[in-house]
């Protein structure tokens, strides 16, 4: 039985010690996130001079939003996150551009109606956020989010998935744990050995209520939510960039 997303997922990111090390830990555990953001922005067909309305669903420390402003400095951005501390870090990352952002602290499941007005956004972007939802919650959230995208607007997500089959998932996890252990600083006690790395990752994911779906499940959810031409643009093991446009039919 799938767990529901609960406030523990958000509370985990409102702990100062977790937020303080978040970006450094991401470089160890998810060093491909910058490549994923680069690919996601390459897919979005916007030019530097365009005025585009964008929703960042799970802004985190602002990495995706920062790169969006680099590509499209005239963007009008709405940034949603459940963690007040994460939002503060994102503001620091964006600097003066933070003044151009409408900041919304909210659980994904209760985003204010005015944020998700129909046909408001040219694009919705998200990274390393939606895997905290189970399949039913994700469908409900994305259905509301897609309604807020303009016709022919884009949804694009950079996130983690799990393998379809347990034996393949175990092998991918073995590869992942070995790579994290090798990347980590030598004196970081969390990642000294394969066993300590595995223990730390298991505890972290349980605390944050990670619930990644298979890629097929995520694609089906996105299509059912209204992105009927959903496509995978990039994948390496458990990390994936996918999305598409809001169109009436294909």
Keywords:
alpha/beta; disordered N terminus; 7-stranded mixed β-sheet; Rossmann fold; 2 domains; 7 strands
Give the SSE layout.
Layout: H1 7-11, H2 16-29, H3 33-43, E1 53-57, H4 63-71, E2 76-81, H5 84-94, E3 101-105, E4 121-127, H6 135-147, E5 149-160, H7 166-183, H8 194-207, H9 215-225, E6 231-236, E7 239-245
Parallel strand pairs: 1-2, 1-4, 2-3, 4-5
Antiparallel strand pairs: 5-7, 6-7
Verbal overview:
There is one protein chain. The protein is an alpha/beta fold. The protein folds into 2 domains: 7-161 and 210-245, Rossmann fold; 166-205, no CATH class. Helices cover 42% and strands 19% of the residues. It is built from 9 helices and 7 strands. It has helices spanning 7-11, 16-29, 33-43, 63-71, 84-94, 135-147, 166-183, 194-207, 215-225, and strands spanning 53-57, 76-81, 101-105, 121-127, 149-160, 231-236, 239-245. It has a 7-stranded mixed beta sheet with strand order 3-2-1-4-5-7-6, sandwiched between helices. Helix 4 (63-71) links the parallel strand 1 and strand 2 (76-81). Helix 3 packs parallel to helix 4 (63-71), helix 6 (135-147) packs parallel to helix 9 (215-225) and helix 7 crosses helix 8 (194-207). The model is unreliable at 1-5 and 9-16 (pLDDT under 50).
């Amino acid at each position: 039985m799938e767990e529901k997303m609960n406030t523990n997922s958000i509370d985990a990111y409102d702990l100062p010690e977790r937020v303080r090390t978040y970006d450094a830990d991401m470089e160890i555990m998810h060093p491909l996130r910058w490549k994923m953001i680069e690919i996601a922005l390459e897919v979005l067909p916007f030019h530097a001079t365009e005025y585009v309305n964008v929703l960042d669903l799970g802004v985190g420390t602002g990495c995706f939003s920062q790169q969006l402003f680099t590509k499209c400095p005239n963007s009008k951005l709405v940034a949603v996150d459940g963690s007040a501390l994460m939002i503060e870090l994102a503001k620091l990352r964006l600097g003066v551009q933070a003044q151009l952002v409408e900041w919304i602290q909210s659980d994904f499941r209760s985003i204010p109606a005015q944020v998700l007005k129909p046909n408001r956004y040219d694009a919705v972007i998200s990274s390393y956020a939606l895997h905290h939802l189970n399949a039913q919650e994700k469908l409900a959230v994305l259905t509301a989010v897609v309604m807020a995208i303009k016709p022919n607007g884009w949804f694009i997500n950079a996130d983690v998935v799990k393998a379809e089959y347990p034996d393949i998932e175990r092998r991918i996890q073995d590869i992942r744990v070995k790579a994290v252990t090798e990347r980590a600083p030598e004196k970081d006690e969390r990642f000294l050995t394969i066993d300590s790395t595995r223990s730390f990752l298991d505890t972290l994911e349980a605390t944050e209520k990670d619930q990644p779906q298979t890629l097929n499940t995520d694609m089906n959810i996105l299509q059912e939510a209204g992105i009927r031409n959903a496509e995978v643009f990039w994948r390496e093991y458990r990390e994936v960039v996918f999305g598409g446009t809001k169109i009436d039919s294909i």
